[in-house]
Amino acid sequence: PAWLSIEPGTGIITGTPTAGDVGVVTVTVVRSHSFSTESQTFDITVLGSPALPPLDDEDNDSIINMLEVAFGTDPQAASSVADGLPVVSEFSVPNPFPFPPTRHLAISFRRMKGGNMNFGTMAYTWVSPAGDTYLYQVESSPDLLLWATQPGALLQESVADANDDPDNVEIATYRTIAPIGVPSTQYLRLSITINP
After folding, report:
1. Residue 114, Cβ neighbours under 10 Å: how many?
2. Strand 123-127 to strand 133-141: parallel, antiparallel, or no bridges (unpaired)?
3. Residue among 116, 185, 188 nearest 155 (CA)
4. Which residues pair with 28 in a beta bridge?
5. Which of 44, 102, 125, 150 could be joined to 146 by an S-S link, Cβ 3.0–4.6 Å?
6. Which of 2, 3, 45, 8 is nearest to 29 (CA)?
7. CB-count exposure of residue 140 (10 Å: 0-12, 13-18, 19+)
């Protein structure tokens, strides 16, 4: 591509693609000398950048651009609205026989793949192609008044590829450690912070 160049003395490849260059580019580098010719072929993937104002709602679906990017939906297509919303459900955990399975409160949501998981804090961090950092945190609490001082513990139960975009988006499910009913009330909160 015209935006890519190679420094003859060092062999360093540099270039800056534009928004119109999004996609996969196959590059072949050839080196010739008096005894032989060598070549190497590789792909460069140019990612698109959500260069949209994070707090605006480009597709007027009542979900701000920042959250659509965080949930792996298209901020410019209103048809993607339902796929991005978190789902709260019950999650059954099997126990050794003869004990019955226990039921737990769980939350499932879409998130961008390729981030880093901190299992100590159960926080997930993903950096967008534009360089913005997204921090995903899921918390539970038995009391909304104590939320800031006593967040409850959660487990990341599963992560699976999203059916509509398996290369870039995954479905993460977190569940409470305590079963439903212990304590009697549980609240879940999904927090997504941009550039924390």
Report:
1. 10
2. antiparallel
3. 188
4. 41
5. 150
6. 8
7. buried
Other Cβ atoms less than 10 A from the Cβ of 190: the count is: 19
Alpha helices, H only, 22-170:
65-70
Query: What is the pTM assigned to this prediction?
Result: 0.62
Q: Which residues contact 155 (CB under 8 A, 6 or more apart)?
A: 122, 174, 175, 176, 177
Calpha distance 142→13 (Å, rounded): 55
Task: Name, in order, each residue with C-beta under 8 angstroms of 76's C-beta and a sequence gap of 6 or more.
Answer: 52, 58, 59
- What pLDDT was estimated at residue 13? 86
How confident is the model over 110-151, as pLDDT tens digits? 888 889 998 877 889 998 877 889 898 888 877 777 766 666
Q: Decide if 138 contacts 196 (C-beta within 8 A).
A: no
What's phi and psi for 51, nearest 5 deg? -85, 45
Tokens of 106: 């769980």
CA distance 155 to 78: 32
DSSP output for 131-173? S-EEEEEEEEES-GGGTTT-PBPEEEEEEEE-SS-TTTEEEEE
Q: 46-92: per-residue pLDDT in tens?
A: 766 545 677 788 888 777 777 777 777 777 777 665 555 677 777 78
